[in-house]
Amino acid sequence: DALDSLYPHWRPVSAMDSEARFAADGWFRLRNKATEILTQQPEKYPVAQSHHGHGDLTGFTFSHDGRPVLVDPGRKDYTKAALSRKFLSGSFHNCPLVDGIAPVAELFFKKWIPVPYAAVKIDAAFSADNCLRIEHDGFSRIGTPVRHVRSIMVDDAQVKVNDEFSGSGEHEVLLCWHFAPGFAVECDDPECIRVTSASSTVR
User: What is the pTM of this model?
Assistant: First the structure.
């Protein structure tokens, strides 16, 4: 794909390497055998490419055996239609909402939503145990600020995500997940989502 062309050295030599990780220019890739996540986390918002405008901070994609499991819907189109605007929102990405607000404000046709726009500081890095840790203050623009830390670990056929929220007051947290077509989703355990296709089961 395009990223492999830009960074030809970031894939493991063998597809069965137990663990491999790569970070460059804000891109983070983490895999364990056939399971892999990919995410792009800049150091701050607004970014130099401020036209990006998606509320996707801490969001990531997840694949197994080369098949997408968690996906990023991208954009429907680039018109001013209401549905097109929704594709910019945090609810259309694999990230949390606090009180209905995404980690970063959306930019729509060069106008920040909501106004005024608050800059965001982001700290994303791999830890010694191959955990990707993303910390940010993107929820500081809500009434009582909330700080968020997302930690992501990859195991064979399993991705573990731990979200920590710190602050004061009461808040509603919604975790958004977008699964690829062809998967049946089960959530019998509040801490585990199991998705099954004709060929595999992952958690």
Answer: 0.84
